[in-house]
Design a protein that fits this description.
Length: 202
């Protein structure tokens, strides 16, 4: 009986979170309010406050889950992988991250367009997340340099350019609420652009 009550409580919590995603996607984080989330979830006000203190706490949980999924999608590159080249492993990382962001495009749009500047704590969290991604990209480029695959460059600067290009691409797609039909093709183009450039070589 107790297990059933816990399961019901968790289901109600998930219901509120799902409603919040829908509301944030429709009107944006700043314009949304608790009443909107309650109405969308179809729950009583007291039920909402049993689970969450305010809309910021709801957003925090949604954002934490999204950032964790993105981090988990990025797998360390194995330079000695017996079956996959470094290029293929990198492309798979990009594809997995894009798949998550396009699937959660309402949250991704808020993350890229509205989350910055909400308050100092959230800015610190986002800065830590992006610093972690930059460190990972930079270290991967350094490994490529050691293997003779990547030219001499400022790896932090180049990592920033790579991250920026991916963020803008995701933002433009989510802004229009039109995720690409072929995520793998987008991942391939991102890889080609960032690692090979635009000009043909003679």
């Amino acid at each position: 009986m107790e297990a059933m009550a816990v399961k019901k409580k968790e289901a109600r919590r998930d219901q509120i979170l799902d409603a919040a995603v829908a509301v944030f996607g429709e009107v944006g984080y700043h314009a949304a309010n608790v009443a909107d989330i309650i109405a969308k979830a179809g729950v009583a006000r007291g039920t909402f406050y049993q689970h969450f203190e305010n809309k910021r706490v709801v957003f925090d949980e949604l954002l934490d889950d999204l950032l964790e999924r993105v981090r988990d999608a990025i797998v360390d590159v194995d330079m000695a992988h017996p079956e996959k080249t470094v290029y293929v492993q990198l492309q798979e990382n990009v594809e997995r991250v894009l798949g998550i962001l396009f699937q959660e495009r309402a949250l991704a749009r808020i993350l890229l367009a509205e989350a910055s500047g909400v308050d100092a704590d959230l800015d610190l969290k986002l800065a830590g997340f992006y610093d972690g991604l930059l460190k990972l990209i930079s270290e991967t480029l350094q490994l490529g340099q050691m293997a003779g695959m990547v030219r001499a460059c400022d790896t932090v600067l180049v990592a920033t350019c790579i991250l920026g290009s991916v963020k803008e691409l995701v933002y433009q797609h989510t802004l229009r609420n039109r995720p690409p039909a072929d995520v793998a093709a987008v991942a391939r183009e991102i890889m080609a652009y960032n690692l090979q450039g635009l000009f043909t070589r003679r």
